[in-house]
Amino acid sequence: MNVWSGLLEALRRHGAAALVSVVGTQGSSPREAGARMIVGADRSFTGTIGGGTLEWQAIEKAASMAKPGSDPRTVLRSQALGPDLGQCCGGRVDLLYEAFDARDVDAVAAFADREARGSFVTRGVMTDAGVRREIRAVDMPVGALQFSGGVLAEGFGDISREVVLFGAGHVGRALVLALAPLPFRVTWYDQRSEMFPARYPAAATARVLGTPEAAAAAASRGSFAVVMTHSHQLDQQVVDALLRDGRADYVGLIGSRTKRVRFTRRLAEAGLPEGRLERLVCPIGVPGVRSKHPAAIAASVAVQLLERDEALRASSAVPAVDSRA
Question: Does 319 reside within a domain?
Fold first, then answer.
């Protein structure tokens, strides 16, 4: 979630809010460091730190702090999930609670504006009066968090990866719905404007397809592309453009192994090198799901994209952040 825009909305709506952040874990834990939740005095919340008793108690504590003039404004709690909460997990979770009210609107708005313009990193020092954060020029993945000696390093921004989807047929529509609650934003192409439904998730943007080359060039680097148009000829043109462009990290094509063989042969004849052809994923989806129902195909593809996304994020090492001034 976008932390600062969410906090700003809560402050403008309710006048006060609390932010709960997982700043450390040991052993088995329901969420990782960097998971967050924004809580209001009425116990309304967005985000999650893992559910269960841990989250229920965290909401109660955060709600008690989500009021004007809360004192102290920061609380750090370390909880053993077994002895403290009666949960079967054997780990420990460190939670940081921060209270925000009208005094913080300008600072939160400034971070929200920066968040809207792209990812950034802050270094913060925890005090009873709040966490004093400054933007720092440090390379750190979005969503990452490090906490040591009262110093907090955080990567903020939109964690979603772009999925460029070609095709607004039954499976395309189902895939847009399947991806909606996941960390993806969908750029959705079809040549036929009438194929887009009147309503679809806010995480998707529908565009009439011009040329496959222009769509491939407009994709963000590291995006995932999924091709399932109404025409095999158009499928081939789109796949050709995507593989030649090279900026998509995943290029998936709906179809059978036979379709892949035919496509790769034609693309090789068109001059695509073997190294590019090997990147084509076809059939798409996780092994074991054989149903051809659109929703089942979409669920299978969503899982494959999620696996690929998590593997790529895990391969991005989080550098140590100097805790000194």
Answer: no
